[in-house]
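Reviewers asked in the last cycle whether our approach scales beyond single polypeptides. To address this, we selected a multi-component target totalling 638 residues and predicted its structure end to end. The input consisted of the following lines:
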Amino acid sequence: MSAQKTERLLNLVMCLLATRQFVSKEQIRSAVPQYADCRTDEAFERMFERDKEEVREMGIPLETGSNSAWFEDEVGYRVDRAAYALPEVSFEPDELAVLGLASRVWQQATLAGPASRALLKLKAAGVEPDESSMLGIEPRVRTSEPAFEPVYAAVRDRRPVAFAYRAARTGEVVERHLDPWGIVSWHGRWYAVGHDRDRDATRVFRLSRIAGQVVPIGAPGEVEVPDKVDFRAQVAALAEDQPRAEARVRVRAGAGVALRRRATTEELGEGWDELAVPFGDVEVLAEELAGYGPDVVALRPEQLRASVVRRLRAAVAEPA
Amino acid sequence: MSGGATERLSRLLAMVPYLLARQGIPLREAARQFGLTEDQLVKDLELLFVCGTPGHMPDDLIEAEWDTGHVYLGNADTIARPLRLGVDEALALIVGLRTLAEVPGLHDRDALDRTLAKLEAAAGDAALASRQVTVEVEGEADVLTAARQAIGANRRVHLRYFVPTRDETTERDVDPMRVLLVDGRWYLEGWCHRAEAVRLFRLDRVVSIELLEVAAELPPQAVARDLDEGLFVPSPEDTVVTLELDPPAHWVADYYPVEEVQELPGGRLRVRLRAADGRWLRTLALQLAGSAQILEPAALAEEVRSRARTALAAYPNV
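The resulting structure, written as structure tokens, was:
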């Protein structure tokens, strides 16, 4: 069934590419063998309308028009060859190697299919990549968040969306309405940047916190993306875990290496040091500190100290 | 079903120009390029073979031959040029190239710049949406540059490397293989002479890297790992722990390689998690205190409680 449909669409595309003139629906019906199987005019009409739509969705520039010699109401179809074909472009072997590397950035991700298809199109000139010119680096990006696909599509199509969003700490889920401008992978996680209709301000949403469906609430093209927005800077500024304050923490000598790597250390003697640790979210830091158990003591701010104590008490209270 | 048909048509329209430019390409090689099995490729060729321009007499049909194990294609002039790049296709490659260009410490960017310029010109309007997608690859520029230098010059490196599960810094000699960015983090993959095995080193945990006056000598068993399934390799010596997670701790199931996830009433999850290092599990359990319980092993649960009790002694006034 599927193979037959692919044959029909391929024959249709070849038929419309082969002609310079617009060809009428009736001519198409007799030129594409698979349409001969349609028993009624209505069946053919329905099938042809659907096929036209799908061919256009593939990006094939299927035009409607009439030849001057015809009556104006006689509509015909063709595919403009110049608009169809990839412009002549030739890549050097080292450039193709770089393109190969770029396509593998999306390995196992939503855009992996389009990336490898694009690469094959660009290789059509017959040049083979020179793999020895590789850069020695292999960046890969995953798009494992279920919300990636719908949010990416909304960004690409500039279409407003609504979704349920889980707040970072409270876990409370609230319906949000967003005009999406861009999508950013930052520290290995995907974020959407845009105009938050509920807050009437620029906001950043972590895709992994979107719960459930992403629903379009407007037409494609409706979102105006501001010209000069640095999406990356927005995410860096608005993501919740940016350091904003400094905590004081006592750490056993030799322990807490990860903390020391981002802190300034003051030796106290007697096997202890005091660290100044920059942090963004008190609860995130408290979680980390609790993990060290007796090797770390939270000193300031008070909120941090209280949160660590609360966590340790919960750990003591664990049932066996 | 319809997605299948247009998806396949897209592939065929890309395949025809590719094969026309490579007459006689081995069937196996062509299949590999398109991510197909040889049988699937033959099915595609059989389909092309019965399609053509109006008339559909033998002269109008696409010619395809593959009996000898080599593919020949002809009489396909109407679709000899590839379809121009779609928005997703252009975006995937352009954002991929920009991601490469953003890599810290990358100096040899000449080929990158040339490629990007050509691609943007060829993509035309389809390239517009690509500015809305950004991949941040900020990283440890010094370590990255040194690691790439070592790979280029085929030199051994000496690493001081921090191991958080043991909360200590280790020293080791490594013959580097490649530098990777996975899930937003940079890694050096190489043959570790201390472990006598291929290891991945997170660059943000490299305390220092030094190029040695010794050539790297990769043994035959130094094979780059396939990272598509993730970074974690299970081992029989792993500690296996069973946890119950409240909703605030559900991220554990996304973040770490869990073996079994079972949904319980009240939005709780029961997961089985393995780790090479028991100390890391102890740390994780304390971090999750209040939103996760250790069911097994009981000894680990007791150890966590005892550590928490000792830690609380440092807070006498609360």
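The mean pLDDT of chain B is 87. We regard this as preliminary and will revisit it once experimental data from Aim 1 are available.
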